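Reproducibility note. Readers wishing to regenerate the assembly model reported in the main text can use the exact inputs given here. Chain order matters: entities are listed in the order in which they were concatenated for prediction.
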Amino acid sequence: MIDRRLFTNFDWTLLVLVLLISAIGVVNIYSASASYTLAGAPYYLKQFYWIVASLILVVLACSIDYHLFEDVAYWFYGILCVVLIVVLLMGKTSMGATRWLHLGFFSIQPSEPMKVVMIMTLARFLSRYPAVDGLTLRDLVYPFLFVGGPAVLIMKQPDLGTAIVVILIACSMIAYVGVRISALVTCLAATVPVVYLGWHFFLRDYQKNRVLNFLNPERDPLGTGYHIIQSKIAVGSGGLFGKGYMQGTQTQLRFLPEQHTDFAFSVFGEEWGFIGCLTLLVLYISLILWGLHIAGRCNDRFGSLMAVGVTAMLFWHTIINIGMVIGVFPVVGVPLPLFSYGGTSMITSMIGVGILLNISMRRFMF
Amino acid sequence: MNEKIFIRQTHDPRRQKQVIFLSCFVASLFFLLLTRLWYLQVVKTQDFQSKSESNRLRLVPVAASRGTIFDRNGTVLVSNRPSFSVAVIPQEVKDRDALLDQLSAYLGIDRTELLEKWEKGKGRARYYPIVLASGITRDQLELLEEKRLWLPGLDVEVKPVRQYEVGVLASHLLGYIGEISDDELKSEGYAGYNSGDYVGKSGIERSWERLLHGKNGGRQIEVDARGRILRTISENSPVVGSSLVLTIDAELQKRTEQSFGEQAGAAVAIDVNTGEILAFSSNPDFDPALFAGRMPPDKWKEYLEDKRHPLENKALKGQYPPGSTFKIITALAGLEEGLINERTTVVCRGSYTLGGSKFGCWQRKGHGAVNLKRALKESCDVYFYQLGEKLGIDKIAAYSRALALGAPMGVGLDNEKGGLIPTSEWKEKRHKKKWLQGDTLPASIGQGYVLMTPIQLASMIASVATDGVVYRPHLIKRIIDQDGRVIQEFKPEILARSGIGTRSFRLVKEGLSAVVNEGGGTGGMARLYEVHVAGKTGTSQVVKLRDRKGGIPYQYRDHALFVGFAPYDKPEVAVAVVIEHGEHGGSAAAPIAGRILRAYFEGKGTIRRPVRQGAAADTGGESEQEPAATEQSGGEPQGQEEQ
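Running the prediction on these inputs yields the following structure tokens for the assembly.
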């Protein structure tokens, strides 16, 4: 029983924004990986295939009524928590981190779907709170447990970037519901010992180094500090109009680290300059404000909260990645959504987009 | 259902306010990013553009010195010396073919070989040097330095390489280093290594690689258009690797290796009260220095074709049937189980028949009536066939495991072999066949399925010396840093306590003393007149030969073994010797064990070193514990045969 209104209400604005960003991403990856000599399909082509594949997921994610997510959220959450523990115990270690679980025929990285499932779970939980005057400290106990468990597991893998994003998503959703001043103050006061404990027990040495190098890049000009310095040179030397497509010397001479994945934005900044960056940022701002707009006009609390969660996911990825590339945040290894090379990141972002479309086109249903 | 819908539709009047609040937050963060971008790309762009244009900052790895390896007395076994290698920086090279041609001519290395190295180094940043040739001579270095201006992109690096201070000594134990291989580069264990790095390839160098390697440093340098260094911007000094102090005694090691002569085999000497391995030798050895540079092809061929297998670490990985040395275990098991005592006698008629099969004693004539002591002394097979039959294989295996046999002992080297102590269950699993009594009989004299490494043989006899306390045989005494401060000390570790009674040990030891010191004993050639030695010979079949007359080809000849300890009353040192294809334990292995023990006691000062060659061993003073055995032995019990 597909309602005709679903088609008339389809959110073309959102889809066009997403496709524009992805297309610029592919063009950028082409340049970023031009100096690579590789066997197999080039990166830009693979990225294109990923986009096509994830568009199918978008269609799937918006064709189901999103209220179904409300019913299954806790189940998904429970299953993923178990998978996270299993990964930690027996996952395949890649580059010193245990993030992948091999299921014989394919591998999954359960921390990625955890972001989306966390959004569903929190949305369901928070939607049951009338909380007119904002959440009290007692109301925050369950959300804290919901988020804290998986966040610790992800941090243990160790995947600091994803753990931070998961926590930030949760904070955004709670902020949307509203928190009482007293609870807010207590929480802020509690972060001090948490950060202290986290620093001493959860962060690996390389993660500590990254944070320390960010605070003082001169500390290790040959290691991660070197990456930040080279990335800043790349973006800064782009100037107002950029060096031109495929003309970035920092990129083509490979002074940049991971330039097709986490540092894709610095390639873009070098070759397209401030004007290019401004254009891309305007696209991202539009996407995120549009997401919030969808949340605002949605008629039920669950959908509205989920829209805020998905938007927060896209927002924080964007801010952290660009901030890292231009030297205002530490290097934590977070990709730029829809833009950096990588199938897992593309699929997660696109599922998020599918959920937003889903909520958007059912806004008149209730 | 109604209620659910009600909750869903609860309209929240604050929602619009919250959306506006979040939107403002989003916009302000984006605004901050844009401000920063404006600052970098518009305000400061001149700075960054000039930095980017002159971006000839280069990261040059500085290799760390490997840790030094010392013997137990502080003698340096392996240290480092500088070696020069030629590298290119692809980004700076103007004409690759010309450069390769010239390098090939100057260095005398085939052009295709240089090209191959170059291709392998691709895929990394273009400012990163690729090492094309290492270990070049001083003359070549001077020549290159002269031509350097006309060869842009060329770089000469100094790297520390291994210097073997005591010559070729303990080469299997120390191992050698070589350039990291492609497979190693890809593997997890070598994360953080770069191509061109030197890593341990065998022995201690490999097993303790991470510790010895240290941490490579780096230099950030600025270069001009021709690749010449203008200035060093910053430097991370390399961290020198940790040093290892081995349990090995260099002098004893040297004498052990010399005692082998041209024979192939292995010897291990252990301090029985700590498990420290004092000598660890596998013969013949190889020259580890050859592996670091370009190995001469004829030398390589020689190593590969030598039927004595010089590249094999026989002490660690050689698994041999222990032969009659295993009778020690069978005897202990029999005594503990109460199946025999010192008075139990068996009549040996030269063979024993079980289920229609005849199992021969090495002494075809038969030994007549033998008790335990004589059975050990003369190594009577029939005595132990009968004992083994009564015990059954699983009892024998249980006592072997009580002495920690049948598994790697954890000496501190990778890929240590564990030997094999068979059980009936093992055979069913492995061969899908039932264990037969016919399998037990050879096993009880150390033939058939039983296998032991020289380390296990030494540990076994050391455990007999200590009445059943098994110390973990180990090679590393301590880890120290470059200033000699101790990082880690390896204390003696008790691997197992056998639980076998001291009475059983006393009876077996009396037999072992007789083997060496009494007339008719098979191990007389290990005898020292100054110190009371006890031990057991063994000869293990490589193949079954019906006809044992005439010349048997080398590779089919029996292995000769000897295990022993000394002094008898207060044991200090145990030794195991295996001579591959040496034929008889008594004549081939025992004299070598004797020489190793003599070297040990000379080193300690218990035995005075002969003043000059041929001088008779000192007769006076120190030989207070001279065994009574000497009076009995009219002549050396040479040529004693056994199986």
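We highlight two features of this model. The two ends of chain A are 16 Å apart (CA to CA). The beta strands of chain A are 92-94, 97-102, 107-108.
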